[in-house]
Design a protein that fits this description.
single chain, about 100 residues, alpha+beta, Alpha-Beta Plaits, 4 helices, about 35% helix, about 30% strand
């Protein structure tokens, strides 16, 4: 298993466009033996310490193999809607890891 953690930062006033992209992208995860484990929107009150900008959302996703993660990233249906991602996301930090 591999685990993907993503910190997502949105452009101003683009939350609806981001949600449109998520509505398309998230269901595609399971097509490649993946599962969205956690999707949260951290609030200021839930943060104990912070030395970076607070992300709009944090996603944790697991895939059975890195190959399936790569297939998800290059999925043709997902790629048709990348313009929504590009329109709405200012930046993202992707962290790839394995379970210890």
């Amino acid at each position: 298993m591999i685990y993907i953690t993503q910190l997502i930062y949105l452009k101003d006033n683009e939350e609806l466009v981001f949600q449109q992209f998520e509505d398309i992208a998230i269901p595609i995860i399971s097509k490649y033996n993946g599962q969205l484990l956690l999707r949260i929107r951290p609030e200021e009150s839930s943060i104990i310490e912070m030395n970076i900008e607070r992300p709009h959302e944090i996603h944790i996703v697991q895939f059975d193999t890195d190959i399936n993660f790569q297939k998800f990233m290059h999925d043709e249906d997902r790629k048709k809607f990348l313009h929504l991602k590009e329109q709405s996301i200012k930046s993202a930090i992707l962290i790839k890891g394995t379970k210890l």
